[in-house]
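Subject: complex prediction, re-run

Hi both,

The earlier run crashed halfway through, so I resubmitted it with identical inputs.
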Amino acid sequence: MYEFVSGPLVWISFIVFIGGSLYRLVSMHKLAKKEKVIYPYMSLKYGLRSIIHWIIPFASTNMRRRPLMTIITFAFHICLVLTPIFLLSHNLLWRQSWKISWRTLSEGTADIMTVIVILAAIFFLVRRLVLSEVRYVTFPSDYALLAIALAPFLTGFLAYHQWLPYKTILILHILSGEIMLIAIPFTRLSHMLYFVFTRAYMGSEFGAVRNSKDW
Amino acid sequence: MAETAKEIVVDPGLDETIKKLTPKKIENTINKVLTRGAAARLKVYMQTCVHCGLCAEACHFYLSHDKDPRFSPVGKVKQTLWEIVRRKGRVDGEFIKNCSRIAHTECNVCRRCSMYCPFGIDMAYLLLLVRRICALLGVVPQYLQDTVNSHAVTMNQMWVKQDEWIDTLQWQEEDAQDEVKNARIPLDKEGAEIMYSVIGPEPKFLAQLLGNISIIMTVAGMDWTMPSFDGWDNSNMPMYSGDFETMARVERKHFEAAFKLKVKKIVMGECGHAFRGAVYDGPKWLAWKEPPVPLIHAVQFYYELIRDGKIKIARKFEQPVTIQEPCNIIRGRGLGDMLRYIMRATCEDFRDVSPRYEHNYCCAAGGGVINCGPPWKKSRVEGNRVKAEQLKATGAEVVVTPCHNCHSGIEDIVNYYKLGMHVKFFSEILVDVMEIPEELKV
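This time it finished cleanly. Structure:
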């Protein structure tokens, strides 16, 4: 089992993740060309202006209105992306198989970042259950997406601290990471791929056509 | 249907039209709309929305209904488009009727929510797609459909015939001459600098606004004209019903009138949605990146007149006054500073609103909602309690609304919530306070 999830399945999941993401972006591009009114309105300047205002914490009105949500969302996304890339033990695996390595986070820092992801996911869950405007638009798939994002971090945390049977947890950890990679292009986790494009389009419309701000 | 309107509203445009629908027709129409033309943005928006609910507080309907999630932007999309996509268009007439209620009467497509969505999802566009589906199925609130029919037949919104149009202009020209010597409304003057265009309700029941512009143009010494023929009405209700073919005909006619008169630019009266149609939605549908003739809104025109000293202010308006910022020229064109400039130039005691500029609340009348007529008036006015609170907080006695939709919508809000304010167009203030040169005095 371990050999399978840490061998062929890794290949499969990376291929699906990268191939699937490319497929998604290419098909978006093709559809957007067909719609005719998308590209002529796109503006690099206003697209970037909008993206910048939405990737800096508190740079938009809505972020300032909800400080707690803003802090947690940013912490969640930053830790979610950076932790797996700069984790020492992941880095060792890259070195072992591909002879490449890069700077890593200290184990303590990575541990804290993992906890941040877990706590933030719990916050999102509670928010979904408690706030009526979120609950109203929540589907089972929303819980599933949250679970997919949370699982690699929860199992990684447990594996690192070896609180439960290590071998089983490790397999679950690898498996859940692979599920997440595969899920990105084919579920609403693809907001990761689309974010810059939806933002840039809206920014272009607001900036170039409507002469106003969208933050 | 689990969710229903707060009250039952009788509207033959919805109740009767759905009886003629068949499941096959609904499915075919929906699939045509969703796969042709609309595919890219719809698909990406559907795949991007993480159902976070952060757009909710952008919506005046949501805020005014004590945060009832059915009225949040994403809540409206959920009840309509998500369900349509999920069921692959297999929905019934009753469902389409609810779609029309939500998309035509409970959303002003004001686009405030897209400034609150972290992804910049254009929810107004999604609800316009719903309207498009409803319109192709013939399910549109009756009053709104009537204005669309009028556009289709007469090219103006209110069944104004050409002789009535010309007659009204001449009558207003005469009235203006009581105020200013030699005031004119020059008709069909080829090669004039400016073509001035208005919306149907001006000749129909706000004719004095035509007299006002005659006074203003005469005092400012402008070389201007108005067409005596079709194309004078720049308003565009089909844009809001979802009948984009008729929308395109109206916009084309409007610009063709300008070509025919060989004018250098078009100045539009104080109307927001007409401006949106002429500058954005119309050209987009006609595959023009920009309007083919330069076109400016009255607020910008007045700003230029006052800034350049072509109109001088004799005395300032004294009552405390505030503004309603029309979405389609503020969020839609960034005229917020110009509006404040002309307000401060003409008014002694200008009280700014909060939230303001792009973040100002919609009047709840725009986007075709007020055109859905009396049956929907209560729901519209109740859907904008926050506007009443916002205006009340300024302590002003007069609200200036440089937009026809806003004007009527705010008037309804002022009456319903007993705010005791007067609602005015900017031109009414301007005519009141401007200096009339000696040689033009009657």
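The first helix of chain A runs from residue 2 to 6.

- K.
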